[in-house]
Specification:
DNA-binding; mainly alpha; homodimer
DNA sequence: GTCTATACGAAGATAGAC
DNA sequence: GTCTATCTTCGTATAGAC
């Protein structure tokens, strides 16, 4: 779920469309508190009204800063991700390293995988919805980043060169997302070890 | 999403708990028609009321056969999967073959990936819910089946033996699930080719 | 600009009539 | 076994107080 190496910049897709009219500071505050709610109670009570009550405002107040519940949830996920990831943290790391690191952190936050999966499901429903735009962009960005790392690793002789970096990038993201789900349902599926077994598969064949 | 090699038998988890009091025949009829609704209109209108209207009954009538909307949806997915997969079809196939085949079929049914992802998300919410029980069992069953195939392939020298079959099984399922999602969001991510690039990674190293 | 109050329709679920 | 009626909660929209 997490592979946010390049989350630089403000929310482009989920913010208020181009204007600052809705109070950026207060908006951030709401997001911070919403994340706390998730951290404490998992993904339960994530109704608009539930979140509003937990924060201490009316549900209509939330809609003053976010156009819809879906947009709020996407912003919450995006915000949580940006708090965690710094571009610098992941510099000069291998594709697999970045992936494993992000996955382990993500899995440590209760409700995060559930939130992520719920939003991904919503993103499949229709084009142009907040979650659809967000995840389309996100997947593309992460695949590109990983493919770049893989290409460099191939050039350096650290990854076998008989596979397409773009394919492997998509495969890695898919594996990470899917394994987090399986681990949550069955903790005996060891997330870290299993993901790292990818390293064996990617090692040069020579 | 699909990897239903061993869907033999009646719905164990999602059925009416042990009794036949709710009319098995009518129940099957409802499921058949519900699947048609999905096939025609995707995952839209999947509210209890929407499905009921499409079928031509009241929503309360559906709840006579299924305890909740979630249980109905799980039963729909399970039923759709069982219609598609026959144990015989996949005999003597490689793990990757089975996976690719099932994924391609699954992706061909509108709304199926969305339904699957939605239910998986719901399954993460709490233990003991219909979707949680269903998917916990399902993942375990599929991992076991794939691991068995992989072990046989290793013995036959068709798959490298320096990796753990259980790990690879989990990895394969995760990759298949995740790729179907990515493909739906961005069709340029070629599902079949990408999944099959796994074959290169799994080939014996000798 | 920020927020509360309120209303509306749709949803899942239950109770009870037929 | 199936319906209608009803309850509660939800997302959303609007009006208007401060």
């Amino acid at each position: 779920m997490p592979n946010e190496e390049l989350s630089a910049g403000r929310s482009a897709v989920v913010g208020h469309a181009g204007s600052y009219s809705k109070g950026v500071a207060r908006r951030q505050e709401i997001l911070d508190r919403a994340i706390e709610v998730f951290r404490e109670r998992g993904a339960d009570g994530t109704s608009l009204r539930g979140i509003a009550t937990a924060i201490g405002v009316s549900h209509a107040a939330l809609l003053h800063y976010f156009d819809s519940r879906e947009q709020l949830l996407v912003a919450v996920y995006e915000h949580a991700e940006s708090l965690r990831d710094t571009a610098k943290t992941y510099q000069d790391r291998s594709a697999l390293d970045v992936l494993v690191k992000a996955a382990m952190i993500n899995v440590g936050v209760p409700g995060m995988v559930e939130l992520y999966t719920t939003l991904v499901a919503a993103s499949l429903a229709a084009e142009g919805t907040p979650s659809n735009v967000f995840f389309s962009d996100r997947f593309a960005r992460i695949r590109k980043d990983l493919a770049g790392r893989l290409t460099a690793e191939q050039a350096a002789g650290r990854v076998r060169d008989d596979v397409d970096p773009d394919d492997i990038a998509a495969l890695l993201v898919a594996a990470s997302d899917g394994l987090q789900i399986q681990w949550l349902l069955e903790p005996s599926v060891e997330l870290e070890r299993t993901l790292e077994s990818f390293a064996v598969l990617l090692a040069p064949t020579s």
